[in-house]
């Protein structure tokens, strides 16, 4: 997992997240509301591959999408 300063922050695979969300027929707003984050944060997760996001946000989104949080984390070789 790509972490920042040994804290619980991760780079999200933006394209994979967007695909999983659309494959689940969910809007950004629906996923954001169900996961407890803002729609703006989710939009950044889906577009900013070089930004780090907190583990709680990543875990919450993964739970809504019914996937393991590791599936959303960008690998270090990407």
Kindly describe this structure.
- The protein is mainly alpha-helical and 78 residues long.
- It has helices at residues 14-23, 28-35, 39-47, 55-65; strands spanning 9-11, 52-54.
- It has a two-stranded antiparallel ribbon with strand order 1-2.
- Helix 1 crosses helix 3 (39-47).
- The longest helix has 11 residues, at 55-65.
- It is globular, with a radius of gyration of 11 Å.
- Mean pLDDT is 89; it is low at 1-6.
Give structural attributes.
4 helices; 49% helix; two-stranded antiparallel sheet; mainly alpha; 78 residues; single chain
Give me the secondary-structure topology:
Blueprint (H helix, E strand, L loop, with lengths): L8 E3 L2 H10 L4 H8 L3 H9 L4 E3 H11 L13
Antiparallel strand pairs: 1-2
Shape: globular
Q: Give the mean pLDDT.
A: 89
Rg calc: 11 Å
Measured between the Cα atoms of the first and last residue, the distance is 12 Å
Instruction: Give the count of helical stretches.
Output: 4
Spatial strand arrangement across the major sheet: 1-2
